[in-house]
Structures
1.
Amino acid sequence: MTETEKKLPLVQQVVSILWPSFLTAGAATILFFTAFDPQLIMEVSGYGEISRLGGYSMGFFLFWMLTSTSCALTCYFRKPCDELGKKNQ
Amino acid sequence: MKTSSKQPAEGGGEFYEKHKKVYPREVHGLFATLRVTGVLTLLGLYYLLPWLSWEGHQAVLFDLPARKFYIFTLTFWPQDFIYLAALLIISALALFFFTTLAGRLWCGYACPQTVWTEVFLWMERWFEGDRNKQIKLDNAPMAGGKFLRKSAKHTVWLLFSLWTGFTFVGYFTPITELGQAVLQFNTGPWETFWILFYGFATYGNAGWMREQVCIYMCPYARFQSAMFDKDTLLISYDEQRGEPRGSRKRSADPKNLGLGDCVDCTLCVQVCPTGIDIRDGLQYQCIGCAACVDVCNDVMGKMKYAPGLIRYTTENAMQGVPTRILRPRVTIYITLLCAITAALIYSMLIRLPLGLDVIRDRNALYRETNEGLIENIYILKIINMDKQAHEYHLTVSGLEGATLLLEKTDLLIDAGKVVTVPARIRIDPVHLKKIGYDVYFTLTAKDNSALHVRQKGRFIGPLNR
C-alpha cells in the first residue's frame, strides 16, 4: 500500500470499488434489458422457469460482479511496482 | 470555486483514518424550514405516489414483469427508451443550471441522501436528545438506559427503512398486491430480496454513512465545482467582518476590544452535517445546507449585530463586484434545457401508439420455392400501444412484382398487446436486377389511416443475376 493510499479512509477504499461498479452496473442493466427481454434469454438458454423480475435481478448482479471485478483489478494494478519490490527484499 | 484539499479528519500513522462521528446540532430558521418543507414534500411524494390509482391501474408503476412503464395517463414501452434518455439529459442539464445559478441547492435540499438523513436525525433526536446528550450517551458505558435508547432508535430506523424498501418495490410491482403479500409473509423471493436490499441501503446510508456518502461516494460532489463561477451563490463566512474572532460580553463593544463580529461560539461547526468549519473557507465537503447561516443569524440577533456574517453570497459580491445572473453559461444551459424539453414534449405529442419491428430470418439468406420463386422470410413484431384494439392492414413496397404472404391474415390486436407475425415475400427472379433490395413494410390501422408505421427490411436474392 502506498503512502497516499494508506491515508485513504477505509470507507473510501471500499466504496471506490463497490460504488462506481454499482452505478455502471445499473446503467448496463437498463441498456441491456431495454434491448433484450430477460424472459426470452432465459427461455432460449433453458431456464424458462425464472421470472422476469428474477432475470432483471440476476442480470444486475452479474453486471455488478463484472464491473466490481474490473474496479478491484484497477485498484490492484494501480499499486506502484517499486514498492512491491521493496517488500520482497 | 477553490476547494481546500483538507481531509475531513486528520489521521496519524494509522492504516486508515478513523471516522469521527458527526453530531449535527438541531437548527431552526428560514433555511431549516425550507429544508423541512422539501423533506416533507419529497418524502410525501415518494411514499404516497405508488398508492394512487389512475384509469384502473397504479398511477406510477414501472411494471418490469410486463415491460411497460405507467406514468399517469402515459404508457411507455421498451421502444420508448429514447424518452427516458431525454428525461435523464433534461435532469442533468437542470442540475447543471441550478448549480451554476445557486450552487449546491440539490445537495442541501433535495438529494435523497440529505432528505433521508434528515429524517433519520429526527428519529435519533426522539430517542437520544440533541447533540450534547448524544455525545454524552455515546461516551457512557453500555448500560440499561443507553441500551434501551439505542435499540429503540435502531428499531424505528429499521422499520422506517423496511417501509422505504417496500415502497421502492411498490414502484415495480403493484403495491396493493405487494402489501397483501407482505402482510401474509408471502412475497416472492426477488421482491423480498429487493425490499431488504433497499431497506438496508437506506438504513446504512442515512443511519450510518451520512456525510461520508457525500464526501466519498457522490460523483456530483466531485465535479460540481466545475459548474461554479464567480457569480454562483454559495455559503460563505464574511472573513473581513468576522475576524479577529473571539468571545466577548454581550454589552462589550467589539471595536474597543479589537474584535470582529464572530463571537467564536462554534455553533456553525456544531450544526454542520458534514462536520466542517465554514470559517476555513470554501470546502468541497460543504453541501450548502445553510444550517450554519440559520444558527449564526440567530447568534447575531442575540448579540444585536446585523445578520449575515455567514450568508448566501457570491464570490463577486464578496469582492464588491456586482453579481450578474444572466451569464453565457446560464444562457446556454437555459437554451439547451428549453430546446430538449420542447423536443421531448413535441415528440411525445406526435408519438404513434403503434410499433413495428422487422427481423429477417437469420437461418437462410433466401429460399427457392418449387415453382422457382425467390422467397425471404421475416418475423414481424407488431405492438399495439393504444388503449383500444385495432385491426391492421399490412402492405409491402419497394420491390416491383413482389407478393406478401402472411401466415396470419387476421391482424386484430388487442390494446397493449404484442403479436409476432411470420411473413414471407415471394418474387419471380426475373424481376431481380441486383442482389439486395430495401423493402418497406407499411402497417395501417383499418379504422384510422393516420395510424400507420413504415419499417425498412432487406430482401436478398441469388448472387448470379
2.
Amino acid sequence: MDMSEEVLQQASPGLIPGSGTARAAKPTRLSPSFISWLQAGPMMLVFLAFFLIPLVFVVIVSFWDYNEYQLLPAFSGRGYTDTFEGCIAQLPDLCTIGKTYLKTLKLCFLVWAITLFIGFWVAYFLAFHVKSKTWQMGLSLLCTIPFWTSNVIRMIAWIPLLGRNGLVNSGLVKTGLINHPLEWLLFSEFSVVLALVHLFTFFMVVPIFNSMIRIDKSLIEAAYDAGATGVQTLVNVIIPLAKPGIVIGSIFVITIVMGDFITIGVMGGQQIAAAGKIIETRVNALQFPAAAANAVILLAITFLIITMMSRIVDIKKEL
Amino acid sequence: MSETTRTKGVSRRTLLKGTASLAGLAAGSGAITGFPYVKSAETKVLRYLGTAVNEGDDISKQCLKDTGIKIEYITATTDDVTKRVMTQPNSFDVLDTEYFSLKKIVPSGNILALDARKIKQFDNITPVFTKGETPGGKKIGGQGTAPWKVLYLEGKDSKKFATSATEFVTLIPTVYNADTLGIRPDLIKRPISSWSELLNPEFKGKASILNIPSIGIMDAAMVVEATGKYKYADKGNMTKEEIDLTMKVMTEAKKAGQFRAFWKDFNESVNLMASGETVIQSMWSPAVTKVRSMGIACTFQPLKEGYRSWASGFCVSKGVSGAKLEWAYEFVNWFLSGYAGAYLNRQGYYSAVLSTAKAHMEPYEWAYWMEGKPAEKDIKAPDGSLLEKAGAVRDGGSYEDRMGGVACWNAVMDENDYMVRKWNEFIAA
C-alpha cells in the first residue's frame, strides 16, 4: 500500500499538463476521472480498512450481548440501556452518564476557549510580527516541546510544581500571600485544564498560523489606508480570513479532549469522570459491547459538535 | 496505563516483515487473532504473557542457562493480560496470571490445565494454595477468589472447578503476597491499626485508593467492615445491595473531600506517597519498597482486620502441544526449583515452593524476609541495591503472621458487571 502511494506521488507531477516530463509527452489513454480515482484510491482504501470497517464493527458489537468472558452475537440493547441506567428514575438529579458528559463538555469548552485565545495570539505574533521565515519555523517548533516527553513523565512532572509541597505553593506561602498550601492546584479541574491547554495549544497555533500566513498583506494595508483602526482590521479582516484555521484547530482540540481519559485521569487524580474513562473501564472489565455502545455515544456527540462548527464555516469552500 | 509489549528475538519480526501489509490489513479488520510463529528446531522458545511481577531479566537469563529455554516476555497490566487471553489465545505459550481472573479465563476454554503429576515439586507447594492454611497450621481467610477454590478442574477439558484435589491444575502457583495500606509514619505520627483509618476525617484530602474496580472494591469493603457499618457474608462476592452500600460509603467520603487522588499505575502510587500528597493509601509491597529506597519513611502497615491477598501462577495456551508443551513443563519445573523463588522472596513477594527457595537464599536473608527477624546484615534487592540496613524488621513480620493474617483475596464477583457500573458512578460522583 505504501509502495503504490509512492508510485502515484512520483507519477502525479507527470500528469500535470505542460510539466514537460517524458510521461506527459506520451499520449495517455487514461480518462481524467479514472486518474483522479487512482490518486484518491490509496487514501480511500486506508480510510476504509482502518477507519470505516472497524467503525462498522464497533457499531455492530455495541448491539451485542455479553457475559463475563465472551461476546454473544445476539441483538441486545443492553450496552445502551445499562449506560443510561437511572437517567429517568433519578430525575431531576443527573444519572452517571449525564454527569460524565456534562463534566466532559465543561472541560472541553474551557480547554477550547483558552487554547483558542492563546493559540490565536501566538499565531498572530508568528504570522505578523516575526518577519523572518527561519524564526517563524524555529518558534513554531518551540511549541512542540511539550510533546518531547512521554505522557506519564509529563504528568508526574506537575506534582513537584503544583503539589501540596510543590514550588508554587511553597513560593506563595513564603511570600506570605497564603497561609496554607492551595489544594486545588493539583488533582482538580484546574490542573486538568492547565495540562490540556499546555498540551493542545499547539494544535490551535498551527492551523491558525497557516491561515494567517496566507492572508494577502495588501488587504491589511488597504484597511489601514481606508482608516481602519487596529481592532477594526482584526475583527473585519484578519479574523474572518483566519476562520478556516480557527475551525480546524477547534476540531482538533475538541475531538482530542472529548476522548481523553489519560490526562484527565492523571491530572484529576482519577476523581473526575470522563467519557473516555467509562469506555476504558468497560473494556478492562471485558464488557466490550458496553464499551462499544459508549464509544458510539461519544462519537455521535463529538460528531454533532463538529457538524455544528462546520455549519458556521464551510471549510471545503474556504480552503 | 503501561501497556508495553516486550519481545525478544527477531524470528517473528522477520516473518512479519514479509507479510507486513497483508497482516496489517487483516489485523485492522479484526481477522487475525494472534501472531503466527515459527517453530524452530534449534532453540526452545516460549512466549510468556504476564504482568511485570515475575518477569525479571535475571530469571529469563538464568532459565536459558539452566534449561536452554529462551523466554520471550510479553508484559501487560493485569486487565490487559486477561483481555489478551480472551481475544488472542494464540499470541502466547505460557500464561502467568492471577487466580481471580480464572473465573473469566476458564469458561472461555482458551487455556490448558497442567498435569500435577508432571510437576516435580507439586507436593511441596505451600499449603496456602492447597489447603488454605499456613505451614504452621493457621487457617487463612477465604473470602473472594481464594486460590484453593479454583486450583483444580474436574477433568482435562472441564470448565468446572473441582471441590477436591484432581491432577488437573488450573494454575501452578508461583507467587503471592498479602497487601495492606501504606502509610507515612513521619507525617501521621501515631500508630495506625485499622483499615477504617482510610476514611478518618483526620486524613481529609490525604487519602487514596486504587482505581482498579476489582481490587479497589475489596479495599473499600475492608474499610467499610472496619468502620463497623456492615459485615459482609463474602466481601469477594457481594450482592447488589452490598455493592450499593459499599459505594455509598465511599461516595460520601469522596464528596467530603477525603481522597486526594485515586491511583491506577504503580508509579502514581509511589509519587503520591513520596511527595506527601497522600499519607495513607492502598498500596502494593514493591511500591512501599520504592518509596523507602528514596529515603522517605513509608510503612506497609499491618492492620488488625487482616490483609487482602493475591496470588498468581502458570498455565499454558490451549494452542500449545507436543514438544512445546514439554518445554512448558520443563520451564514450570525450573521456575519452582529455587532460583526464581529466591529472587521473588528477595523482592518481598512469596514463592510457592518454600523449601527450594530457602536453599537458594542466605540464612540471614531467609530470617529477615520469611521469619520476621531483625536483619543481621544489610538487606539487598536482587539487583544489589540496598533495601534495609542491618537491624531492620520486615513490616508485618514473618510469613506465618502475614499470610496467616489474610482476610480476603482479590476477586471477580458474580455481580461484576453491576459493580463496574457502580464504580463508574463513584468516579463520576
3.
Amino acid sequence: MSLLCKNIAFTYSGAENPIFADVSFHLSAPGFHSFSGPSGVGKTSLAKIIAGDITSYSGEVSTNGLQTILYSHNKERLPGWSNVDRHLNQVILPSMRSQKDELIKIFGLSDCIKSRFDQLSMGQQNRVNLIRYLLQDCEVLIMDESMSNVDESTRENIILAIKAMFPHRYFIYISHNVMEVAKFCDSILVFRTNGKASPVVMIKGCNIGKGEILSPAALDATLLEIMNAS
Amino acid sequence: MLLRRVFQFFVIYFLFILGLMALKYSLNLSDYVIPAPSGIFQTLVVEYRQYSIATINTMTVAIIGQILSVIMAFVIGITGRQSTWLGSFIKVAAYNIQAYPIVALAPILFILLGDGFLTRLLIAAMICYFPVLLSVLGIMSKPIDDIEHFYRVTNRMRWQLEVKIRTFENLTQLTTVVAGSATLAVAGTIVAEFIAANAGIGYNIRIALYQSDLSKILIALFLIGITVAVYQALLELLGTAIKRAWTGR
C-alpha cells in the first residue's frame, strides 16, 4: 500500500495561474507525514485532491490499496441536538468504544464529553472532531489544521498517542508549526514559494515516538532543512 | 410574548382609530362616513357575539389551511432540495407558480366547488403555501458543509439526517416563516370570504361594506387583529419551546 502523486497541477476556476504545478511525491509506508509551507501554497487543495473532494486537476493520484481516504479540517462541527458523547457513539463501531474512551482521556476531554458541541472551546471542538475521524475505518486520514487552538503539550500527547494506537494508518498532518512537524513526522512535503525549481521537496523528519528522546542536533538539522527548502 | 403581541396590536389599533377620529373631527365628517366612538362601541355591544363566532369560523379555516400548506411545503421542499431532475423541476415550478397571483384563481374555485368550507380552505392553503415552500426549499437546498462533510465522507449521510441537520441549523428562520404564514392563511381565508363565501368574518365585512357601515368593519378588524395576534404569539411560543427542547438553550 502506498500513496503516489505524479505531476499534480491545480488551478482554481477563474484563476489565471495554477496554485501549484508538477507536484510529485510518494508515501510508501504508514505513519505520520506532513504537508508544510506558508499559507496559500495549496496544501489544502492537494489534500482535497488526494481525498477525492477536488476532481478538476491534472496529474495522477495512485492510492494503491488505500481504500478509504478521509479529509478532516478544523472548521467542522458536530450537530447540536445532543451531547458530544452520544454523537460519538452514533458514528463509531461498537468495537471501537474502548479506543474511544482511551482517546477521550488522552485528548483531555473527560470533563466535557457530556456537553453539547457549541458549549466547548475551539480547541476542545477540534479534538472531538479528530476523535470521531480517528475512530473511522480508513487507511489514510488527512488532518488539516485539526489541532489548531490546542495547547502545545496536549498536542504532543495526542500525536504520540495517535502514532502508537494507529501504527498501520497513513496520516497527513497539515500544520504551520514547523517544530512540531519536524519532531513528529516521518516525511515532510515542504511547499516552496514561487520561483524555485521544484514546487515541493520531501524531507525526512525526526519521527519520534512515545518514550523516545530526540537529540537537539537532529531536530536542528531537520528544521534547517525545512527552512532551506521553503 | 403573548401579552406583548396583544399590547402591540392594541397600540396600533387605537392609533388607527385615533387617526380616523382626527380625520372625522378635523374635516367635520358625518357619522355616516366615520362613526363616532359611541357608535362604534354600540356596534361592538350589538355585534360582538355574531362577529366573534364568524372570526372563530374564519380562524378555523385559516389554521387548517395553514397546517395543510406547511405540511405540503415541507414535503415538497424536502423532495425539491435534491439536485436531481425532480428537485430542479420542483424548484423551477415553485418559483414560476408563486409569481402568479393565486387570489386571481379564487373565482375559478368558487365556480367549480361552490362557496363552502372547501373553497375557503383551498384558497387559504394556496395563499399560505408558496411563501412557505420557497423558504423551505431555500433552507433545505443549502448544505451545511461544516457539519455534513463528515457524514458524507464516511457514507453515513441519509436524507433524514440531511433534513434534520438543515432544519436544526435553520430552526429560528423556519419557526419565523411558519409563524408569519399564519397572517397569510388568515388573509387568504378573508379574501375568499370576501369574494364569495357564505360564512366567516370576511363574509360579514362584505355585508357591512354593502351597508356602508364602517363601525361593523372596524369591529371586525378589531376581532381579526386580536385573534391573529394571539394565534401568532402562540405559534412563536411553540417555536421557542421546540427550540429550547431541541437545542437545550
4.
Amino acid sequence: MRKQTLSLAALVAGAALALTACGGVQNTAGGGSDSGDYPTGAVNMPVGASAGGSSDLISRQISRGLSDELGGSFPVINREGANGALAAAEVAKAKADGSTISVQNASLFAITPLAVPEDQVTDIADFDVVQGVSRDDYVLVASKGSGFTSIDDFANADGKVTYGTTGVGTGAQLACALTFNVNDTPAEAIPFDGGAPALTALLGNQVDTACLQVGEAIENINSGKIVPITVFGPERVGFLPDVPTAQEQGLDVEVAQYRFMTVPKGTPQDVQDAIAEAMQATFETDEYQAFNEQNNLTPMEIPGDEVVAQLEEDKQRYADLVDEYGIDLGDAS
Amino acid sequence: MDWNAFLDGFGVVTQPSNLLYCFIGVVIGMLIGVLPGLGPAATMAILLPIAYNADDPVSAIIMLAGIYYGAQYGGTITSVLLRIPGEASSVVTVFDGFALAKQGKAGTALGIAAIGSFVGATISIVGLTLLGPVVAGYALDFGPPEYAALALLGVLLVATVGNGNTVKALVAAAVGLLLATVGSDSFTSADRFTFGSLNLEGGIDFVVVAMGLFGVGEILYNLEERHGKPHVPAAIANIWPSRKDLREAGPAIGRGSLIGFFLGVLPGGGAVMASLAAYAAEKRIAKKPERFGRGAIEGVAGPESANNAAATSSFIPLLTIGIPANASMAMLYAALLVVGVTPGPQLIDERPDLFWGVINSMYIGNLILLLLSIPLVGIFVKILRIRPAILAPITALITILGVYTINNSVFDIFVMIIFGIIGYLMKKTGFEPGPLVLAFVLGSLIESSFRRSMLLFDGDATGFVTRPISGTILAFVVLVIAMPLIRKAFRRDTPEPTSAETEPAPREDSLR
C-alpha cells in the first residue's frame, strides 16, 4: 500500500515537472534563429510587479513571443518593490549584453519622481529603450451612491469629494489629483494598495470616486455598478467609446501609463535590433492582439527613441502641472 | 439559484479530462505548499500558458484553482513538522501543531488538520454555492474603518496566543508592530527605517520574518540543545487520530469553518484574521485553556479549518464582483482573461458552465486532497525520525530556498538569517515569536486602514463609532478589554489567584 502511494506521488510529481517544463519556460533549442547568435543563453526578464498584475502579464506575453521568434528561454522574474525601482536597478546594473532585458512602466520615470526623495529616482538615461509596447489608459469612475455622472456634477458636491487611488506616485493618483485641482473641486485622496482594493471601496460606496486602469474597471462599468466620468488619454479609448476625454470636457489633463522594452545602457545595437524585430513580429500574431484586446491595452508599438522623447515630454509636463497647481503627491518630494 | 446549471456543472467536472486536470492541479498545489516561499501565485504564473493550449479552457481554470486550494493543505505539513509556517494564515497552526509533533503526535496533528481542512473547505463551498452573491455584498460594506476595527481586535487577540507571560507577549507584539512600519510610507512615500536601502523600501516580507523567527530560530536552538544534553528522539506513534481526538476536534472544526467562511470573504487579511479568531475562540471556550500552546488538538483543528474555509470563500469576490482578493486570485483573474472571460457580475449568466464547473470542481478536488493526505501523513511523519544532524541542514536549505523564491532576492536571505538569530535569542529568554509575527502582519493593516479612515472622515474620529459595523466591532473590543476587570471586581473578596510570575505556570489570561 505504502509503496503504491509513493509511486503514485512520484508519478504525479513527474507529471507536474513535465507540465512545468513544457508550459512555463520554453527552452527549445531550435526556433527561427534568423537574427544572428542572440540569444546565447537564458535571458532574464525582471518585472517590478507581483505575478498577476498587468505589468507581469505583459512581460509574460512578450516573453512568449520572444521565445517563439528567437528561440531560447526568456524567464520572467518577479522583482516586486518600490514601484518597480528595484527591478529597474537590477537591469541598470546588469551586463549590457542582452542577457537581462525588462519591460518597464512610464510612471516609474515620469510620475514616481514627483513623489519620492531625490536619491530614489530612476533615470531613463541608465537604459536603452528598444521598443514601445502598449498603453494602459486611466479612467475616473464614480460610485453609484455618489450620484456623480459627469465632471460638472462635482460643482454640486457638498463637502470634499473623496477619490481612491492605486497608491502614491502612480498615474492614477496624478490623474485624479490633476482633475480635481484643475476643476477647482475640493477633494481628498485616499491611497489604496493597488487597483483591486480601490475598486472594492468604490463598489461599496466607501469613496465617491476613484482613478483606475481601464482593464480593472471595465467589467463593473459595463454591468452598471460604477459610472465612468472621464478618460485621460489623448483620444477616447476604444474599449469605452462613449466616455469623453478630460480634454473634451475642457480640462487640460492628459495622463497615460505605457510600457516599453528596456536593456542596460550600452547593449550592442545588433542585440537591440534583434529584440525589436522579434517584438514587432510578436505584435503581428493573433494571439498577442487577442491578449491586448482582453486586457484593454491600446498598442503603442513605436520605436525606442520616440518612447524616450515622449517620456521626457510627459515628465516635464507633469512636473509643470504639479507645480502650477501646487499638488503634493508625496510629502517626501 | 439555477439548480440545472449547478447540476450541469457536475457534468462538466466529471468528464475524465477535467478530473485529471483537477487531480494534477491539487497535487501540484500540495507539493508547492510543502515548500515554503514558492507560493501558489508564482506557480500559477508559470503554468498560465496551459490555459492557452488546453483543449477546453474550463479544464485549465479547474487546474489553476486546484493549485490554490491544494497549497493550503501542503502548508500545514511544514508548520507542524518543521515549525516553518509558509504563510500568515498558518502561523497559529505552529503553536500546537509543533508541540504535538514534539510529543510524537505529529500524525494526529496532520490527520486532524487534513480532516479539518476538508470539512472547512467543503462547508465554505456549500456557502459559496448558496450564498455567494449575498456574502459578496456584505464584504463591500467593509470599508477602511471596519478593517481598522477588525485589525485592532486582531491585535488584542494576539495577546491570547502565547502560553508564557503576558507582558513578554505584549512586548513581542509591540516589536512586531514596529517592524511593520519599515519601508516607504504608502501614504506619503516618506522613508521609514530603511537606512537608505532600496531593498527595505517595500517593507519586510512576512514569510522572511516568520521563517527566520520560527524555522531558523528553532534550528539554532536545537543545535545548542543537542550539545548541551543528549537528544531524546520523540516516539512517533499514533499515525491516525483516535476517536477521542476526533471528538475533541469536531466542534472546533465546525466553529473554525464558519469563522473562516465569513472572514475569508474580506480581501486583504481575511484569512489571517480567520485563523487567529478561530484559535482565540477555541482557547476561550476550552475548559483548560492552559493546554493551548502545549499540544491542544483544538488549536490545530480550529485554525486549519478556518484558513481553508477562508481560502475557498476568497473565490467569492472574484467570481461575483470581479475583484481578486489576493495574488493567487489575481492570477486566476488573468487566466480567465486568457480564455476569453472577464470575471465579474455577469460571469454566472454568461458562462454558467465555467462558473459551476470551477465551483463544483472544488468539491471533488478537496475530496481528492483528503484521500491523498491521509496516506501521505504516514510518510511525512517519518521525517521526524531523521537525525537532527541531517534534518537541520535540510530545513535550513528549504527555508533559504523558500525565502529566495518569494522575491528572487538574496537580500531577503540575510534578513531571514538575522531574524533567525533574533528568534533564537527570544527562545532563550522566554519570548515567543507568535505574537511578534501576528502583530507584524496586522500592523500594516491597522495603520493603513486607520489613516484611510481618518482621511475619509476628514479627521473626525467619531465616525468609527457611528458606523454600524465598525461600532459593533469596537464595542466587542471594549468588552474583551473590560471583561477581566469586571470579573476581578466581582471576585474581590475571594483570595487572589497564585502569582503568574513563575515561568511555566499557566499565565493569567488578561483577556478572559
